[in-house]
Amino acid sequence: MKQFKVRNINSDAVFTVKEGESVLNAALRQGVMLPYSCKNGTCGSCKGRLESGEVHYPFHPPLALGREEIADGFALLCQAEPLTDLEIRAREIEAVRDIHVRKMPARVIEKTLLAPDVMRIRIKLPSAQRLQFLAGQYLEILLQDGKRRAFSIASPPQAEDEIELHIRHVDGGGFTSWVFEEMKERDILRLEAPLGTFFIRNDELDRPMIFMGGGTGFAPLKAMLEDLLAQQDERRVHLFWGARRTADLYLHEQALEWAAANAHLQYSSALLDAADAQASGSFHGNVHEAVLHEYPELSAFDIYMSGPPAMIDAARGAFLEHGADERRIFFDSFEFGLDVPIRVLAKKH
Ligand SMILES: Cc1cc2nc3c(=O)[nH]c(=O)nc-3n(C[C@H](O)[C@H](O)[C@H](O)COP(=O)(O)OP(=O)(O)OC[C@H]3O[C@@H](n4cnc5c(N)ncnc54)[C@H](O)[C@@H]3O)c2cc1C
Ligand code: FES
Fold this sequence. Notes:
By secondary structure, this protein is an alpha/beta fold. 22% of the residues lie in helices and 31% in strands.
């Protein structure tokens, strides 16, 4: 089988890519931690520069790369497969290098409806196993037919052997419909974790942080906030949570309590429904507009955001126009699984 050699000029790391393997998967397999989130070519987290060599995109077209970016030498490393040896320039992420990704079973111990279309489930890991992860990372549920479904871990690492997930019901969605309609307490799920590179950076501790979530995008931000509180880390955080209606802010009271009890935390909500926004004192409009209304100049902030791809796309563009530093915007875009047809994914972008 053919193999290609890839060198990351930024770190001098060298790894090999097997024929038919993406640059990202090969790097992760060999402990080179490149940033990623969706792994299906739509979120843009894995963008890197191709300094020499040639790649192709045989599986998913690189939806998150514009024509101009391809002409400027950028590549989406989760989809790019080498045709020759390569030299790339990509950021590497030290913090997750020593955390092992593992497959394990877990038992469902609680299933609670938090909003009409949001289910909280708590799962318990086998007694001998603790999952090491960074607050903000996600896991994948492994389904019997080989499919995988990604969900952010909503509980902090301090929560021992129990993990909380917030699952939104997707219309026509296979797994989430099963969770809502059939899954019972005591059922066993198989999962792989921890995954992703969405977690709090600790290299510039004096920068205030904006956390922005849309819908169940609140889940990883909750884990991050609870982790900061558990560590008595008093960096300034302003949490913005956006949704359609009041009922969708399914832990609004909890967020208000955090802000009331901690002077370094602020909380603001944004709702698309005008009447609900007025009644609840929320900003009326998109959540990224609420951020910009409060902070029209963003260069001082580290920004963490998670939720629907359309929200992430809109926010990213607008925040860059308002001075945000591209290297200090971190996000998880809640894309559908790899097996969902590309025409369905493309419709959302
Ligand atoms: C890093 C990450 C973290 C995430 N975290 C969370 C989280 O914390 N909470 C959360 O709620 N979500 C989260 N998501 C999103 C979540 O993974 C998806 O909502 C989930 O995968 C949907 O699974 P499903 O099996 O129910 O839907 P699928 O069956 O995958 O269907 C998805 C959509 O595609 C359509 N579709 C599928 N197949 C076809 C077909 N053949 N033809 C036409 N249409 C089709 C369906 O009708 C549906 O609208 C996250 C995603 C990522 C990438
Ligand atoms: S586009 Fe590659 S990880 Fe999302």
